[in-house]
Design a protein that fits this description.
With 557 residues, the chain is α/β, with parallel strands linked by helices. The chain has 21 helices and 15 strands. The strands form four sheets. It has a six-stranded mixed sheet, sandwiched between helices. Helix 12 crosses helix 18. The structure holds 6-O-phosphono-beta-D-fructofuranose (F6P).
């Protein structure tokens, strides 16, 4: 039986945090100068992730208050409820068991009287066998040629995870298979991604939890028509056979997959207890499994599991996702942070911030708690970011000298995927070291800044001294790992899943529903006939929408 949320703002810990905030004067310079143990005391290990919170605006007193808050809102009980399959997604009356997707085969997790782990591993085995056949060339298209391009068609969680992980794990790709991803209903997306493809060597993976998403089904139909048209040039091809050889599907709605014409034999299922934004580790990762192979995909899942275990078993005082989630609450609710930057010093992670936007903002962008009552404090900060060092030359100005607190997570790896050396000046310069010097320098500059005395001492003209002062005390978390392997990527994703969960528990929201995306979808269905010229539907729209549609109809050639 799911209990109502504890209102965090009524707890003693919240009162203590409010008092602490009143007299809070962060001073990272003296906190470090006076406390040689600060860096080691606030550095934690979770599996392969080395996480330094010492440049966050954290003190021992604050940490004690945040841990008390976690206890008083029942974080551990809620975590255990999630991990054991309680229906904590109350608005959809569902269990939340993405963590079951990465349990080892000998584990057991009983939901409604059935152990879900064997089903998870059966699906994985089916997906792995299929991926293996595509990789080896045994799976051929209708003309007998091997598959060279895999096109994932999906959107939201059925796209962002696979594309982010595909990009991140580029060094592990099969050398002869490229993946492409079609998500947007903007016809440009399908138009561009299909360009140049040979239908005979192209495989489509239609990924949709519900198999009813307008964008995905429209793009799947476009792809099917493109395939059949293009294959016609190869002579007499049976359409049903072509679809069977060139389309597979991933969904919880296998009946709808069959209605589309995809052979149920070539469909990979998952379960309603996996949210879309938590599904990259399910069969939604089929394109990724083809790209990196079953063994690497297994390592990816092991990475998630290592962090799940850490989250489940580590006392909160050392529990990295819990600590990072609690710190985020401190920043949002007590220091008025409205956004949170994620800055990977890894070009391979260039889609990671976009992936995290769905994970965090679809999960915690809520105004109502899981019992239907209004939230009692701000929720859901905006997550954003770009890889360093590109971001340094674009928006870091605002992080260094803007008026708002922007907590920032810096992510870096000790070993590069491409260890290039610049030899042009007669010296061997390891370019990864130049790169990492930037990573270390940025967090240092944000933490410690530059005083007006320092600026003056450099001979700076007085009238520009203030413009060149850096206040410091700008919070950062440094996350490092040995290398960006499939396992480490799984660990990073699971870390942010559990950070998101922790914040959701403190705020009392259902982090697993997404009702806020529905209204726009419904209206789009209603408005589409007006866009195509139905005057009576057009007249039912507000005057702004009417005139915008009129503009479109006048200009459209
Ligand atoms: O509209 C939001 C959403 O439901 C996401 O939560 C989900 O990841 C995405 O759409 C795609 O849904 P589906 O996998 O069912 O096509």
């Amino acid at each position: 039986m799911t209990r109502g949320p504890v209102d965090a703002t009524t707890t003693d810990a919240w009162k203590a945090l409010t008092e602490l905030r009143a007299g809070f004067e962060p001073d990272l310079r003296s906190w470090f100068a006076d406390d040689p143990g600060r860096a080691s005391r606030f550095t934690y290990q979770a599996a392969d992730l080395h996480v330094d919170l010492s440049k966050d605006l954290i003190t021992d007193d604050l940490l004690a208050c945040l841990l008390a808050l976690a206890e008083q809102v029942g974080l551990e009980a809620r975590r255990d409820a999630m991990l054991s399959g309680e229906r904590i997604n109350v608005t959809e009356d569902r269990a939340v068991l993405h963590t079951a997707l990465r349990l080892p085969a000998d584990a057991s997790l009983v939901l409604d009287g059935t152990d879900v782990v064997p089903g998870v591993h059966e699906t994985l085995a089916k997906m792995y066998a299929f991926a293996g056949r595509v990789r080896s060339g045994e799976w051929t298209g209708v003309t007998g040629e091997r598959i060279r391009t895999v096109v994932n068609i999906g959107i939201g969680g059925s796209d962002l995870g696979p594309v982010m992980a595909y990009e991140a794990l580029e060094p592990f790709h099969h050398p002869e298979i490229e993946c492409r991803f079609i998500s947007n209903i903007d016809p440009t997306d399908a138009g561009q991604k299909l360009k140049g493809l040979d239908p005979a060597t192209t495989l489509f993976v239609v990924s949709s939890k519900t198999f009813s998403t307008l964008e995905t089904l429209t793009n799947a139909r476009l792809a099917r028509a493109w395939l059949l048209d293009a294959l016609a040039e190869h002579g007499d091809v049976d359409p049903a056979d072509a679809v069977r050889k060139h389309f597979v599907a991933v969904s919880t709605a296998l009946d709808k997959v069959a209605d589309f014409g995809i052979d149920p034999e070539n469909a990979f299922g998952f379960w309603d207890w996996v949210g879309g934004r938590y599904s990259v580790d399910s069969a939604i990762g089929t394109s990724l499994a083809i790209a990196i192979g079953p063994e690497r995909f297994g390592e990816f899942l092991d990475g998630f599991h290592a962090i799940d275990k850490h989250f489940a078993e580590t006392p909160l005082a050392q529990n990295v996702p819990a600590l990072m989630g609690l710190l985020n609450v401190w920043y949002v609710n007590f220091l008025d942070a409205q956004t949170h930057a994620v800055l990977p010093y890894s070009q391979l992670l260039h889609r990671f911030p976009a992936y995290l936007q769905q994970l965090t903002m679809e999960s915690n962008g809520k105004s109502v708690r899981w019992d239907g009552t209004a939230v009692t404090t701000d929720t859901g900060e905006v997550f954003w970011g770009e890889p360093g060092t590109n971001g340094q030359h674009a928006f870091y100005q605002l992080i260094h000298q803007g008026t708002r607190v922007i907590p920032a997570d810096f992510i870096a790896f000790a070993n590069p995927a491409y260890p290039l050396v610049d030899t042009s000046d007669g010296q061997d310069v390891d370019v990864h070291e130049l790169f990492l010097a930037n990573f270390f320098a940025q967090t240092q500059a944000l933490a410690f800044g530059k005083t007006d005395e320092q600026v003056r001492a450099e001979g700076t003209p007085e009238h520009i001294v203030n413009a060149r002062v850096f206040s410091g005390n700008r919070p950062t978390t440094s996350i490092m790992a040995p290398a960006l392997t499939p396992g480490v990527l799984g660990q990073l994703i699971a870390l942010y899943e559990h950070i998101t969960f922790t914040q959701g528990v403190v705020w009392g929201v259902d982090s697993f529903d997404q009702w806020g995306v529905e209204l726009g979808k419904q209206l789009a269905q209603q408005i589409s006939s007006a866009v195509s010229g139905d005057a009576s539907t057009a007249r039912q729209q507000d005057t702004s929408t009417q005139s915008l549609i009129a503009y479109y109809r006048e200009k459209r050639q």
